[in-house]
Write a structure and sequence with these properties.
The complex is a heterodimer of chains A (about 625) and B (about 400). Chain A is an alpha+beta fold and about 625 residues long. Chain A folds into 4 domains: about 5-50 and about 55-230, no CATH class; about 260-410, Gyrase A, domain 2; about 440-545, no CATH class; about 555-614, Arc Repressor Mutant, subunit A. In chain A, the strands form 5 sheets. In chain A, strands 1, 4, 6, 7, 8, 11, 12, 13, 21, 22 and 23 form an 11-stranded mixed beta sheet that branches. The relative contact order of chain A is 0.09. With about 400 residues, chain B is α/β, with parallel strands linked by helices. Chain B folds into 3 domains: about 1-55, SH3 type barrels (Roll), CATH 2.30.30; about 75-280, L-asparaginase, N-terminal domain (Rossmann fold); about 285-395, 3-Layer(aba) Sandwich (Rossmann fold), CATH 3.40.50.40. Helices cover about 20% and strands about 25% of the residues of chain B. Chain B has helices spanning about 100-105, 130-145, 160-170, 195-205, 295-300, 325-330, 355-360, 370-385, 390-395; strands at about 10-15, 20-30, 30-35, 40-45, 50-55, 75-80, 85, 95, 115-120, 150-155, 170-175, 180, 210-215, 225-230, 235, 245, 255, 260-265, 275-280, 285-290, 310-315, 335-340, 365. In chain B, the strands form 6 sheets. Chain B has an 8-stranded mixed beta sheet, sandwiched between helices. Chain B is globular. The termini of chain B are far apart. The chains are: A alpha+beta (about 625), B alpha/beta (about 400). The interface between A and B is large, with 56 and 45 residues. Strand 5 of chain A pairs antiparallel with strand 4 (about 40-45) of chain B.
Chain lengths: ~625, ~400
């Protein structure tokens, strides 16, 4: 679909959520480490229910989540505590996390909040044991170098990881998270993706954020003229952002077309469902024959539109199904897609007859326990009514490929309640002034090219690397930039391709190896085997000894003398030109234990000596 | 500016570099709390606020709960506590503000179990509980049972719930269950334990029990509530849901959640075993003294003139030898000393070591296997109701309400 975004009035903004790499969690002293679920040491379960805000209102998103009361199970670890279990009050706000967030706020030219108040944001989908996510507004009103404007920066606690349906893992709960929200200042899918990349660059420039899959998530807010604000949650891949925006615009355009067509037809929705359980008692559809009850609702003059595609793989019927699922039903059938799924033409005809429906109409079926059926039909009626209005305001989740599914209504301010267990934190002008702005990665890249003579690609790799800081420290300690780059980047990448567990190598060990090389204790040629040995769990000393045993000058001279003697014919024939090939033989033997320069010098002397004697 | 602002006023906040609008909530020490349109609260100096609209906040009337007249009667007596608490903008902390009827709104499932009569006795945090309020509470429970209640629910803060439950155990003989319930997570949280505790407590109030009990979470999961005897229960954790434990006895029973399947132990007192009696006198001049190594005898003088002192002694029931003279003097002057143990588990025995024998000779009586706090409450009640010192000494060593077990089963 070719879309003219300007004509459609596309307005978009993004929220970036990034985990911070702090020592401890935001409101307890647990480490911020992710665990394997096999390492869990316990499990418990709870129920959650919606509560009113301090203003006495009930949040509509939470209210909907309550329709289907579920039991949530939680896995605990030896790295989680009673705070994650919602069994102990939170500790004061983690100052290290606040420092990082305030630094980022300063990079974005924002105004800090004079006194930061922690809030409870109601979230009762089970991902927080407390039923709320603690969050605080830290700064307002910023602008990025590209001109995009930042509305707010918040500091939040990460939610628990959902393992499956109602099972959650508590290792992630409470890791500090920065939330950066742009204003609705973006007008094309590309601008949204570019801004997300820019914010990502700023975050990484601090060197204080977590890395790896799942540590950064983007939410996108989108609307078009006459459409409605839709928030799409959990876009993890940067490269998909433009596609997601484009598909949402397409969805809203299609929903508006459906609305116009429904209005033209004079469409309406019946209010009372009809029980049709007996019609399907001999059906080939197991879903229908197994159900305790089958309820049907007629949507007058909706025929053909419920089955209309509004996004790749999504129809108006799919949207209705998402709403119905909130009641615990597995889904729905609609006559635009029938006969199918074991339902015969005769059964469809009987259904239409019972509901007095013509081909202009659409009939929707749900099959389940009676209370679920009634609940689901009400949800379907609600969504059908929304189709007459156009685009509903919703929170949606991203599906594979970039289409989206309904999650819940857009939450309002009613979901915010003060976190009474955490004292407010003052941010004085002196404190804000004390933060140093880190060099932006874009500038780092230019500096590496200019000062170290790196290619743009190498400079980019090194600047974005998690080991950038260690690299800079090594260079400051007198290691040549090219060698340091190989140690902290290129060689590690090669070893990684070979399958070596390079994540096990710590930066300090690499640095000590580099310092040994600088002293000439081991040769630069030994870099790759030494790093490999580090990856296998050896200490720098062991790694150097194994990969490059220490040779005394006498031993080295003896080795060279022997090799020269063995190859004396070759040497006399090639004379000075023999140095290159013989050098290779010697270096292979000493396995990088000695600097090539020293080998070269001794070898040269030995060959000259041999030639004089021959 | 602050003098003219009231909660709910629309305000503009001016900060360096930007401004935003919100709703004024309250001020403390020159810092105002403002709720922005997004729902976030921020703190900002009062002088940076400008009023742009006046408060439009109205009351949020509680919804009327329709009660089913075919169900049995339970009275809820509310004393306050976390089971019915919400935020206080004066201090920014959680305080008890609900009325008893709000508990029915907070726990809608209750209405399907019984008809409730709500009595608001007081509205305090349980650390502010006093023997005087115990007397009012005993009278309120007595009146409700007399008026036909088939069970009593007492909502209470958890800090001193065990003291109050013990007090009611001595002050009342009850034919129906008197159930204390609270919550460890405030009612304003989606994860509050108030719903499960409240439902299980109501189920217990309808059961065949005939004594004073505490009903609270039995594990960290939302699966079981335990029923504890009022004279054997203790809060054993500062914050966990399953903080309450029965010490030195078997639990009275349990309630499975959400099925509300109740199991009652054979040693529980059955409904109707006792006729309704109230003895509400208490001698308030009683104290609980926790002995520690190096404690000076002068410390005891602070309680001179008191009618009774419970000592929480070390091990089998000891204080340092230096204390004994002072104890003897006060005992001779009319103070009744009862020895309990800091061990909580096990029975006091002052006949094993010399110090114990000297304490007995000084007039101290052994508090058997009573919990120190329970012994204190019992001492208040015994001294309030006995005319002679000998009667008091005898009653302190007798089991009145399950607080003393004659045997120590293994």
């Amino acid at each position: 679909m070719n879309l003219n975004y300007e004509a459609l009035g596309l307005v978009a903004g993004i929220e970036i959520h990034q985990q911070l790499n702090t020592k401890e969690k935001l409101f307890c002293r647990c480490p911020t480490v992710i665990r394997e679920i096999e390492e869990a040491n316990g499990e418990f379960y709870r129920y959650l229910r919606a509560t009113k805000s301090e203003m006495g209102e009930l949040d509509r998103a939470a209210e909907e989540e309550m329709m289907h009361v579920r039991q949530f199970r939680y896995l605990t670890y030896d790295t989680t505590c009673l705070v994650e279990n919602d069994e102990e009050p939170p500790l004061p706000l983690n100052e290290e996390a606040l420092d990082i967030v305030l630094t980022i706020a300063k990079v974005c030219n924002m105004t800090p909040i004079p006194e930061i108040h922690t809030m409870r944001k109601l979230v009762i989908d089970g991902s927080n044991t407390s039923g709320f996510q603690r969050t605080c507004l830290v700064a307002l009103n910023g602008v990025l170098p590209s001109g995009a404007t930042i509305e707010t920066i918040c500091l939040e606690e990460e939610a628990a990881q959902r393992i499956e349906d109602t099972l959650f893992s508590l290792d992630r709960l409470g890791i500090p998270l920065i939330e950066i929200t742009t204003s609705p200042c973006l007008h094309t899918p590309q601008a949204v993706q570019k801004t997300a990349a820019e914010i990502g660059m700023i975050l990484r420039s601090t060197g204080r954020v977590k890395r790896g899959l799942g540590t950064i998530r983007q939410d996108i807010n989108i609307s078009i003229r006459d459409g409605a604000r839709v928030e799409i949650k959990g876009v993890q891949e940067l490269d998909l952002i433009a596609e997601v925006v484009q598909r949402e615009v397409q969805r809203q355009v299609s929903l508006l077309e459906i609305r116009d067509e429904l209005k033209k037809r004079g469409a309406s929705i019946e209010k009372t469902p009809v029980e049709v359980t007996s019609l399907f008692s001999t059906s080939k559809s197991k879903v229908l024959t197994k159900a305790a009850m089958i309820l049907a609702i007629k949507l007058n003059k909706f025929g053909g539109l419920v089955g209309k595609e509004i996004q790749p793989g999504r129809r108006l019927g799919t949207e209705m199904s998402d709403y119905a699922k909130k009641c615990g039903v597995g889904g729905l059938f609609h006559t635009d897609e029938l006969p199918a799924y074991g339902v015969t033409e005769e059964e469809v005809a009987a259904l239409k007859k019972t509901l007095n429906a013509s081909n202009e109409d659409c009939v929707i079926l749900v099959a389940d326990k009676p209370e679920r059926c009634h609940c689901a039909i009400q949800q379907i009626i609600k969504r059908a009514e929304m189709a007459l209005e156009g685009v509903p305001k919703e929170t949606r989740k991203m599906l594979e490929g970039g289409s989206t599914a309904y999650m819940r209504p857009l939450p309002g301010a009613a979901r915010m309640y003060p976190e009474t267990d955490v004292f407010p934190v003052r941010v004085t002008p002196e404190r804000y002034a004390s933060y140093e702005i880190p060099e932006m990665i874009d500038d780092t890249i230019e500096r590496y090219i200019r000062e170290f003579g790196f290619t743009r690609e190498l400079a980019r790799q090194m600047a974005y690397s998690e080991r950038r800081e260690a690299f800079e420290e090594a260079v400051a300690a007198g290691i040549k930039p090219a060698l340091a780059e190989r140690a902290f980047n290129s060689t590690l990448r090669e070893l990684n391709r070979e399958g070596a567990p390079i994540h096990r190598i710590n930066d300090e060990d690499i640095k000590s190896v580099l310092l040994l090389m600088n002293k000439g204790a081991i040769a630069k040629e030994a870099l790759s085997p030494v790093l490999k040995a580090l990856a296998e769990g050896q200490t720098p000393k062991e790694a150097c000894e194994r990969a490059a045993p220490n040779l005394s000058e006498d031993t080295l001279k003896a080795i060279i003398k022997r090799i020269v003697t063995e190859r004396i014919d070759f040497i006399t024939e090639r004379r000075e030109a023999s140095i290159g090939p013989i050098m290779g033989v010697v270096m292979k033997e000493v396995r990088g234990s000695v600097d090539g320069k020293i080998v070269n010098q001794i070898l040269r002397e030995e060959i000259e000596h041999a030639l004089r004697n021959s | 500016m602050s003098t003219t602002l009231t909660t709910g006023d629309r305000v503009r906040c001016t900060m360096q570099g930007c401004s935003c609008e919100g709703t004024y909530i309250a001020s403390r020490n020159g810092m105002a709390t403002v709720k922005l349109t997004s729902g976030y609260n921020i703190g900002i100096p009062e002088e940076n606020l400008t009023r742009i609209g006046i408060s439009e906040m109205g009351d949020n009337p509680s919804e009327e709960i329709i009660q089913d007249s075919s169900l049995p009667h339970i009275s809820i007596i509310s004393t306050g506590g976390t089971i019915a608490s919400k935020i206080d903008y004066r201090t920014g902390a959680v305080t008890s503000q609900f009325r008893a009827t709000d508990i029915l709104n907070a726990i809608p499932g209750l209405a399907s179990l019984a008809q409730f009569r709500a009595v608001q006795l007081c509205n305090i945090l349980s650390e502010n509980m006093t023997p005087a309020i115990w007397q009012q509470l005993a009278r309120a429970i007595y009146d409700e049972i007399k008026a036909g209640a088939q069970g009593i629910l007492v909502t209470h803060g958890t800090d001193t719930m065990a003291y109050s439950a013990a007090a009611m155990s001595f002050m009342l003989r009850t034919p129906v269950p008197v159930v204390f319930v609270g919550s460890q997570r405030s009612a304003d949280r989606p994860s509050s334990d108030n719903v499960m505790n409240g439902m299980c407590a109501a189920k217990t109030a309808l059961s065949d029990l005939g004594e004073v009990v505490v009903v609270m979470h039995g594990t960290t999961s939302d699966d079981t509530c335990l029923i504890h005897r009022g004279t054997r229960v203790r809060k054993m954790h500062t914050s966990r849901r399953d903080a309450f434990e029965t010490i030195g006895d078997e639990i009275i029973g349990s309630v499975q959640y959400p099925e509300l399947k109740i199991t009652i132990s054979p040693h529980a007192v059955q409904r109707g075993t006792h006729d309704l009696v109230i003895s509400e006198h208490l001698e308030e001049r009683c104290a609980l003294v926790w002995y520690y190594p190096g404690m000076k005898p002068e410390v005891l003088s602070a309680w001179e003139g008191y009618k009774g002192i419970v000592l929480a002694g070390t091990g089998l029931g000891h204080t340092g030898t230096d204390m004994i003279d002072r104890i003897k003097k006060m005992s001779d002057a009319g103070t009744l000393f009862v020895m309990t143990s800091q061990c909580l588990h096990g029975r006091v025995c002052d006949r094993v070591y010399d110090t114990g024998r000297d304490l007995l000779a000084a007039g101290v009586i052994e508090g058997e296997d009573m919990l120190p706090e329970v012994a204190l409450v019992k001492l208040m009640w015994v001294l309030g109701n006995c005319s002679s010192g000998d009667d008091a000494r005898r009653l302190m060593r007798e089991n009145l309400a399950g607080e003393i077990r004659r045997r120590s089963p293994t």
